[in-house]
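WP5 quarterly update. Target: Adenylate/guanylate cyclase domain-containing protein. Source organism: Arthrobacter flavus. Length: 393 aa.
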Amino acid sequence: MTAEDQSDLSQDEPATDAAPAQAGEDTQTGEDTPSPVTPGEVPVPQYDLSREAIRNLERELLGAERTLRRRDVAAGAGVSLLSARKLWRAMGFPNISDEDVAFTEKDQDALVTIIELVRSDKVSENAAISITRAIGQMTDRMVVWQIEALVEEMAAQREIPDAAARKALVAELPDLIEPLEKTLVYAWRRQLNAAVQRLALRAESGLQASAEGRLGDEDDAPLPLARAVGFADLVSYTSLSRQMNERTLAHLVQRFENVCAEIISVGGGRLVKTIGDEVLYIAESPEAGAEISLALAKAFTEDHLLPSARVSLVWGRILSRLGDIYGPTVNLASRLTSLAEPGTVLIDASTAATLRDNEHFVLIPQKARTIRGFGEVHPVTLARGTGTGLILD
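Structure tokens (predicted):
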């Protein structure tokens, strides 16, 4: 066994193993060749995507020239190559060889920052890797999302092909880096503050929300958090998507996500993830979850561009890990979605019990259904009672 194989993030001795690691690869881009324009065709703008232009952009993004190999970075940070590889892999970096000059001093600074959290006992090695993986996965998805949104905007506004829009974005990206970076840091701080406020509120209230509607004390519960878990599923999405071209389908999906994100946010919930034609969300209380669910069902019923949606909601305990949620509550909510009628919200009997005395909601019992993994379930249709529900701008 090599020294590398024996090391971890808290050790100071760099290793000497030559196994593949994770890092960015060099970009090789040739000169752009103008393409001929036929009569009547809209000229496609030409952009400087020469090798030098790409390298200048890379230097701005990476903060410096690539001058270091992976072993240089690990040694400079005072850790084994294995430890560095663990973090690079968690960050989602691709493989490179021992000879590739792929890193900058900024890479070394970032590695030291993460490692110091472990050395100072602020977090464990496993926690550091998990946090790093969260950053890598979330920023990767965010960057892809932003690029596609910008490309689509450029193609539509300038009436140019998709390929030309992508070249335009690369050429104009230097002007967008700073505002995008500032917005990212701002949003992260605001979201972290919101999470802190939720933690403080729950601590001050004695974790009352987590005890509502479910048996067992918080400390004795098999799953730590009680949440309202909801699903919204577009009706006939599969058949509709087969009839649409790429751009129309993209607009439908984007509109679906935008409507869901706005309503869930206004209702004080959190959008956990979107899976094609389905969205998963949570809320801190059954009442908040019910308001969000009713607002979603109403919004899609009234939207002339989107099909209606089936919505479900279950109040119960969950496990929150890796930015996702798990547990029987999530599974039951998913199963109920398929049983709901288009434009309606379906809940289970236990969730209905927590809302029974609330005049804002009307509960309509349905016939018992057998659901795989849960046996006989007594679903209840949730409808609007008194009040106006969520107010959207």
